Amino acid sequence: MKIGKIISINYSQLKVRISSEIRGSSVNLHGNIYYFGNIGSYLKITNAVEEIIICEVVSIFDSDLHQEKLSFDVESNRELLLKPIGTINKENRFALGVGVFPSLYSDVSIV
C-alpha cells in the first residue's frame, strides 16, 4: 500500500511526505495492522531498474510550511526521513547498499 512520495533525495537520506489521506502512523490492510511511522520501521521504494529499495525510518517530523499550490498529489505536512538499507533484485535476493536511487516523487509503500 502506498503511503507517500519522495520529496528530497541525497546520498544517505530520502525525505518522504506522507499522503494526506493517511491519518496516524498505521494502516489496516485486509484486517492486518501495519505500522510505518515509527522510528526503526521499514518502507520500500521501487527504482528505475525495478529493484525494491528497503529503507528504515530514522526521523519523523511535521513540516510547518504551507504551500498554496499542490503538486504530484503531495499535500500533507507530515514527513519522514528514511535511510536506505539495501535492495531486493528481480531474483528476490537482498543486498546491502543502493546502486540506483529512486527518482523524486516516487511512491513509498509499506513492507
List the main descriptive attributes of the protein structure presented here.
111 residues, mainly beta, six-stranded antiparallel β-barrel, two-stranded antiparallel sheet, 0% helix
Describe the model:
Helix content is 0%, strand content 50%. With 111 residues, the protein is mostly beta strands. The strands form two sheets. It has a six-stranded antiparallel β-barrel with strand order 1-2-7-6-5-9. It has a two-stranded antiparallel ribbon with strand order 3-4. It contains no helices and nine strands. It has one domain (2-110).
Question: Helix and strand layout, with pairings?
Answer:
Layout: E1 2-9, E2 14-18, E3 26-29, E4 32-35, E5 42-46, E6 52-62, E7 78-88, E8 94-96, E9 107-110
Antiparallel strand pairs: 1-2, 1-9, 2-7, 3-4, 5-6, 5-9, 6-7, 7-8
Estimate the global geometry from the Cα principal axes.
Answer: globular
Trace the largest sheet across and list its strands.
Answer: 1-2-7-6-5-9
Distance between the termini: 8 Å
Total of domains:
1
Counting DSSP H or I runs of 4 or more residues, the number of helices is 0
Runs with pLDDT <50, length 5+?
none
Name the beta content range: over 45%
Structural class: mainly beta
Rg from alpha-carbon coordinates: 14 Å
Helix content: under 10%
User: On the 0-100 scale, what is the average pLDDT?
Assistant: 88
Q: Main β-sheet, in a few words?
A: 6 strands, antiparallel, barrel
Instruction: Please count the beta strands (DSSP E, at least 2 residues each).
Output: 9
Order of H and E elements: EEEEEEEEE
